[in-house]
Amino acid sequence: MASVGHVIVGLAAGRLWAGGGASTSQLAGAMVGFSALALLPDADVVAFAFGIPYAHPFGHRGASHSIVFAALVGVLVGLIARLRGQPQPLRLAALCAAVVMSHPLLDAMTTGGLGVAWAWPWSAERAFLPWRPIPVSPIGAGFLSERGLKVALTELAQGSPLWLWALWPRR
């Protein structure tokens, strides 16, 4: 999946977290933060630079796309929030874990790649969901191609209800 769909999830989660009483800067900060979390699993592409192949457990769509990884990120964010005295650290942890988990869920609905390692570290097996309506995106510079643009526009159209809700002007 291209980054567009993941960012849409982050924008919506930011709006959900910030709520109606947040300032514009608080809302923007929440949207940026949650968008970063939604994109986080794809940091695994750095594995290519170290010669780690796609199919390796630490390759693309491997360990960082697992349920365990999403849960660990949620716990870490929740602990940091609690230590900083922020309100509702458990709610924040759960939302962060859900946002990170949305990434492999969306990737498992794409039409290509090797699937997602949901059950890492217990299994390195990769899987897709039975319903795969999202075209797979080219990796790296290939994203800046005509095909990459088509995939991004498709994701924007598919995620338009969530995108519109996230960016709809507040009262």
Count of alpha/pi helices: 7
The count of β-strands is: 0
- β-strand percent reads under 5%
The assembly state of the depicted protein chains is: single chain
The largest β sheet comes out as: none
Computed Rg = 16 Å
Amino- and carboxy-terminal Cα gap: 33 Å
Spans where pLDDT lies below 50 across 5 or more residues = none
Order of helices and strands: HHHHHHH
Helix content: 40-55%
**Average pLDDT reading:** 93
> Any idea what the shape is?
globular
Total individual domains: 1
Alpha-beta classification: mainly alpha
Brief account:
The chain has 171 residues and is an all-alpha fold.
How is this structure best described in words?
Helix content is about 55%, strand content about 0%. The model has no long low-confidence stretch (mean pLDDT about 95). The chain contains 7 helices and no strands. The longest helix has 19 residues, at about 90-105. It has one domain (about 5-165). The chain is an all-alpha fold. It has helices at about 5-20, 25-40, 45-50, 65-85, 90-105, 145-160, 160-165. The termini are far apart.
